[in-house]
Write a structure and sequence with these properties.
43% of the residues lie in helices and 14% in strands. It has an 8-stranded parallel sheet. Helix 4 runs parallel beside helix 6. The structure holds zinc ion. Zinc ion (ZN) binds next to strand 1.
Length: 254
């Protein structure tokens, strides 16, 4: 059983260097079956380039085809006047499960006060905040941890476990911040092994970043699942990361 905590919708309305030919939810679930992924957190792609209500509607329609397997995290731009209102609509009306932010791509700092009302809506609606991390100057783990500490009842996930350059910082702030979680996604194997050995119980998740580019180019995501076998981790660590921790977080029991 694998619960993949970091995947993306295809590109529908924007053009980006990450985009490719669109695929539908049936295609995506067929891919998940082939890769041994039971459930996935699905993040908006178009919304990161243009944080419109339409992008959240598109995401909701995609995950709504498989409500038991796909969990949608929409997005907003925190500097827009309607950010908190759209977060509320996304959670209560569209049935999404959380918010994805990409401070570097979207061009804001996690220290901006406009994020506070958005976080308050997420707490009130039982949502999870997942942020891109690992790419300074915006999107460092310490900046994201500072936001998490301002909102101690909001579960906050580092979407990439610090990537190659900042994984030590990602681990350190995850240890120090009770409501901060870390998703190993693109984190190098030696770092993943170290993080799993030192992170508090219940804190580590796993993601593939599947869904970027087009349907025929998902080999990288399959490889990321297969790669875990070479990490040298215990069966208990594996089980916690792939199943117990994400299940508990999505159920709101952590
Ligand atoms: Zn991603």
């Amino acid at each position: 059983m694998v619960i993949d905590f970091h995947t993306h919708t295809p590109t529908w309305r924007t053009t980006s260097w990450l985009g490719g030919a669109p695929f539908d939810a049936d295609d995506f679930v067929a891919f998940m079956d082939s890769a041994g992924i039971e459930q996935a957190v699905v993040l908006s792609h178009d919304g990161l380039f243009d944080a419109s209500p339409q992008a959240n509607d598109d995401l909701a329609a995609f995950v709504g085809r498989y409500p038991d397997r796909l969990h949608g995290f929409g997005t907003v731009h925190p500097r827009r006047d309607d950010a908190a209102e759209e977060t509320e609509r996304m959670m209560r009306t569209l049935g999404l499960r959380g918010l994805k932010l990409h401070p570097w791509l979207q061009g804001f700092s996690m220290h901006e006060g406009s994020l506070d009302p958005v976080c308050e809506v997420l707490v009130a609606t039982g949502g999870i905040l997942l942020s891109h991390d690992g790419t300074p100057p915006y999107s460092t783990a310490a900046q994201i941890a500072a936001l998490a500490r301002r909102h101690p009842h909001l579960p906050v996930v580092l979407g990439h476990g610090g990537l190659h350059d900042t994984w030590r910082e990602a681990l350190a702030v995850t240890v120090e911040t009770p409501n901060l979680y870390l998703c190993l996604c693109g984190t190098p194997p030696y770092a993943a092994r170290h993080i799993l050995a030192h992170a508090p119980e219940g804190k580590v998740l796993f993601g593939t970043d599947a869904g970027l580019s087009d349907r025929a180019s998902q080999d990288y995501a399959v490889a990321r699942v297969a790669e875990i076998d070479g990490w040298g981790i215990t069966p208990e660590q594996r089980q916690a990361m792939l199943e117990e921790n994400p299940r508990a977080l999505l159920a709101g029991t952590r």
